Amino acid sequence: MARELVNLSTQNEKLQEKTKDYPTLLDKYNDLERRYDALLTMYGEKQEEADELRLDLADVKTLYRAQVNSIVVRFDSISIFAFFLFRSMIY
Fold first, then answer.
1. Sign of the torsion angle spanned by Cα atoms 25, 26, 27, 33
2. How far apart are CA 55 and CA 61, in angstroms?
3. Taking the CA atoms of the chain, what radius of gyration do you get in angstroms?
4. Is the pTM of this model over 0.70?
């Protein structure tokens, strides 16, 4: 019985030694979890901002293409007008 008591005491001391850092580790874990949640929030915000910028860029590309097409149409009209004007001046 004495031997069993010594074994249980030893086992108890080992367990107490292993669990003495538990409160500190729990605080560190909670702090890490808060930081992780904040990081996820910031990442989500940046991802949303990047998505909005991609959509804005697509809109700008569409407007740019429309503007270039408009300029080409005007240039073609002016070229045709200039051709006929020049032709009428020659003949």
1. positive
2. 10
3. 39
4. no
